[in-house]
Amino acid sequence: MGNKWKNAQRDKRAPYGWQGGFTLIEVLCALALAGLLLSIGMTHYQQHSEAVKQERHQANIALIEGAARRFRLDTGLFPS
Question: For residue 76, how many C-alpha atoms fall within 13 Å in the half-sphere facing its CB?
């Protein structure tokens, strides 16, 4: 007896029975939020990657300077 009443209510809500899912507005809101978070994250990522590049360049310069000094100690001349 309880099942008949539940089925009758289910039929009133949707013509083909209960159909779950997200509405278009919900999907668009989720996409907008994901895009906002992604854009914020990308700006921080780009700033951080630029700082890492600068540190890497400084380390490479120091390495080259050290190699040039060692070359001068061995040969008496700087490399040309």
Answer: 0
Which residue in this structure is represented by tokens 């310069």?
Answer: 61
Alpha helical stretches, state H, 14-23: none
Q: How far apart are CA 76 and CA 80, in angstroms?
A: 12
Half-sphere exposure of 53 (CA within 13 A, CB side): 6
pLDDT digits (tens, 9 = 90+) for 1-53: 556 555 555 555 556 666 678 899 999 999 999 999 999 999 889 889 989 99
> How far apart (Å, rounded) are the C-alpha atoms in residues 78 and 60?
18
Tokens of 5: 């009443």
- Judge whether 79 and 71 are in contact, CB under 8 Å: yes
Closest-CA residue to 26 (of 18, 37, 34, 15) = 34
Q: Return the bridge partners of 17, or none.
A: 15
